[in-house]
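Follow-up to my post from last week.
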Amino acid sequence: MNTEKRMRMTPQRRIILEELRKTCSHPSADEIYSMVRKRLPRISLGTVYRNLEVLSELGEIQKLEAGGSLKRFDGNPAHHYHIRCTCCGRMVDAPFQVMERLEERLDGADGYRVFGHSLEFLGICPECRRRPIAPGLGHLNGPHR
Amino acid sequence: MNTEKRMRMTPQRRIILEELRKTCSHPSADEIYSMVRKRLPRISLGTVYRNLEVLSELGEIQKLEAGGSLKRFDGNPAHHYHIRCTCCGRMVDAPFQVMERLEERLDGADGYRVFGHSLEFLGICPECRRRPIAPGLGHLNGPHR
DNA sequence: TTAAATGCAAAGATTTTGCCAAATT
DNA sequence: AATTTGGCAAAATCTTTGCATTTAA
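User reply:
Got it. Predicted complex:
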């Protein structure tokens, strides 16, 4: 059986995608709303959010900072990396040595002064691997594409 | 003149720090609130947020996903890295080749299946470098420590 | 006595949802 | 006709803020 949903390329969806492809500014949902509204004055913010969700599930766009909506805090102030479970959001420290001065060769690029970096690995934690997958959520157990 | 504020190690602040040091679970503000409330039942969520802010400014803890509160979207679905301006939040693509299979040597660590990574560089964009710094915000123009 | 911190509640900001009408297949 | 999408507004979630009061130097 083919559980895949067909997706219609509605005008709203197409224009959101076009605007996003057109810019390199990595806009927020609200900025996209403003951009799109110039062409579709009656579109609603809810539609923008829904379409951004659909487009990123399809791999047409990327949702950045997709990991978590809520901030997390780390009692260890030393620079280190993390692995985030894309299924439940759980984070653990990554046993991976920090690449010191990784940013040095970027410093000055595009006029930016670059002084640091943050690396996050994405994975599935043991609990989520074990747990039976809820119907329709299987894609959460691995990369989408 | 010394514009620096003195900071008191209040019981609330100390206990928040203790709880955060005690765990390796990278809790959210709300989880920290729950943890701390077992020892200080009358503490308020606002106090937790305020203290987490202070502690991370002091470098005692780290605020993860500190970059932006709002999600951003990228019309380029290919894997690539970004530089984020820690001053204004602006993001640009980083001219830095993706390190393919960086996560391979982590796969299996702690029982995690690791299938990807996300790397973000931190810097100051040209506009923010040029702009006069608002009083008290100078720390935003470089690493804190 | 004075600056800083707390508790409480209200306000903000961002994102998600429910519902019904409209559009598409 | 059945299904999906859109618009609108309300709800939900997470975070910040105002203010009167308390605490500590």
